[in-house]
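General statements about sequence and structure are easier to judge against a single worked case. Part of our work consisted of pairing the sequence of a single chain with a tokenised description of its backbone. The amino acid sequence and the backbone structure tokens for this protein are reproduced below.

***
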Amino acid sequence: MKIIKTIAIAVLALGMFACGSKKEEGSTDGAAGGSNSIEGTWKIAKAEGTGAASFIGVSCKFEGGNMAVNEVPYPYTVSNDTITAKEMFGDAKYTFKFENNQLVVANIKNGQKWIMDKQ
């Protein structure tokens, strides 16, 4: 039951981070475009952490203040290297960075990490 609960929370959290972004004042994340922009559609190629592997192959779309994981939209904001997603059970926070033309997103609370390729 504990693993199912963890996976359910992870799905909701990932769903929130995958659909769009609002660039906050003072933000330097590149959310509004360019080569280091989270905007667009990403596909999870690799995953680390408990239950994270179940997300391999999942499509994540960041677009205009919303992110969607497998088409489930969640509002989010970006500040520096942190994504705050409005999820069903409260806010979820993720760090993100770009490595080797991939987007790396890590859940601050549970340590799951997803490496994504731009689509």
